[in-house]
């Protein structure tokens, strides 16, 4: 049996990891009697933890919301930052379960207003696959903008926004985090077209758009984002002639890198991009296949500089 202090921490961990527990479940988990559970709950209350209970057979315990509980003395921006970080951690191998548990604990002990904001952010976001890196500084996204987008998704509230140089009205559907970027999947109500929009290129206008009835998304959200970003979401877009069949190119790349179009039995085009020509040049070299590039000029110049640098490296 655990000592009292260790048992109280274990009890607190149980209460934070799930909405509620029966007294019998807690007693079994901690290997104590029902009477000890009641005493430990009373001790937690004395320490300032609001533990709610329903008396009688099958009575249950839950951690009340709204108190500033140590060590979770977080202001709203800090709580959002923690939630975003935990959400990202759940998309990393080995952190799925622990990240989800920690996020649940965080939500359980925060005031109702903030808990609803974090729940909206959690439900509105997911993470895409990590496959490449960039030499470009990550864009800064205001946490409040993510909150506003998550709330609009939750409440089915249309958006009026400026996207780069274009003014748009959108029906927001979902947020996807990929390659350290945030993308809003949204539908154009006029055309019915779906597209991912980089959040750091998005500026909301007020008042917002009209409320809408969400349409069902046609397909897999993450696959859609990584495919469409390869076409429209990069700062640099290129079409590269690969001197190999399309099947061979597709076998060598992550589908998130771009799309492959067959040209002939021996050649294909790779449509891809990145945040800089330097990054694109590195990706192309990693294919291990012969290729030709004629544009954009900046990429041609970067490849020429790389070829000279590599030649010098081996004394050529």
UniProtKB/TrEMBL annotation:
The keyword DNA-binding applies. SUPFAM superfamilies: Winged helix' DNA-binding domain. InterPro entries: CBASS_pafABC_assoc_protein, DeoR_HTH, HTH_11, Tscrpt_reg_HTH_DeoR_CS, WCX_dom, WH-like_DNA-bd_sf, WH_DNA-bd_sf, WYL_dom. The keyword Transcription regulation applies. It comes from the Bacteria. Keywords: DNA-binding, Transcription, Transcription regulation. Signal peptide: none annotated. Residues 4-69 form the HTH deoR-type domain. This is Helix-turn-helix transcriptional regulator. It comes from Nocardioides caricicola.
């Amino acid at each position: 049996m655990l000592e009292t202090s260790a048992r109280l921490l274990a009890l607190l961990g149980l209460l934070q990891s799930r909405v509620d527990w029966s007294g019998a479940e807690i007693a079994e988990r901690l290997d104590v009697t029902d009477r000890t559970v009641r005493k430990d709950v009373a001790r937690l209350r004395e320490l300032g933890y609001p533990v709610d209970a329903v008396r009688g057979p099958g009575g249950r315990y839950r951690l009340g919301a709204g108190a500033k509980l140590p060590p979770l003395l977080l202001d709203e921006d800090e709580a959002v930052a923690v939630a975003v970080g935990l959400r990202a951690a759940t998309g990393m191998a080995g952190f799925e379960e622990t990240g989800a548990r920690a996020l649940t604990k965080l939500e359980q002990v925060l005031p109702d207003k903030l808990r609803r904001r974090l729940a909206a952010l959690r439900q509105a976001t997911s993470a895409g696959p990590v496959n490449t890196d960039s030499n470009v500084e990550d864009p800064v996204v205001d946490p409040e903008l993510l909150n506003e987008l998550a709330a609009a998704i939750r409440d089915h509230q249309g958006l009026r926004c400026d996207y780069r140089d274009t003014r748009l009205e959108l029906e927001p559907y979902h947020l996807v985090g990929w390659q350290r970027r945030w993308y809003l999947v949204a539908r154009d109500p006029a055309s019915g077209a779906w597209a991912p929009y980089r959040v750091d290129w998005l500026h909301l206008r007020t008042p917002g758009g009209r409320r809408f009835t969400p349409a069902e998304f046609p397909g897999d959200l993450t696959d859609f984002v990584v495919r469409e970003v390869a076409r429209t979401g990069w700062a640099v877009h290129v079409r590269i002639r690969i001197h190999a069949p399309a099947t061979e190119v597709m076998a060598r790349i992550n589908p998130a890198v771009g799309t492959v179009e067959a040209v002939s039995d021996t050649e294909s085009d790779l449509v891809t991009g990145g945040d800089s020509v330097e990054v694109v040049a590195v990706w192309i070299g990693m294919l291990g296949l012969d290729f030709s590039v004629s544009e954009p000029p900046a990429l041609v110049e970067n490849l020429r500089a790389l070829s000279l640098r590599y030649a010098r490296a081996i004394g050529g």
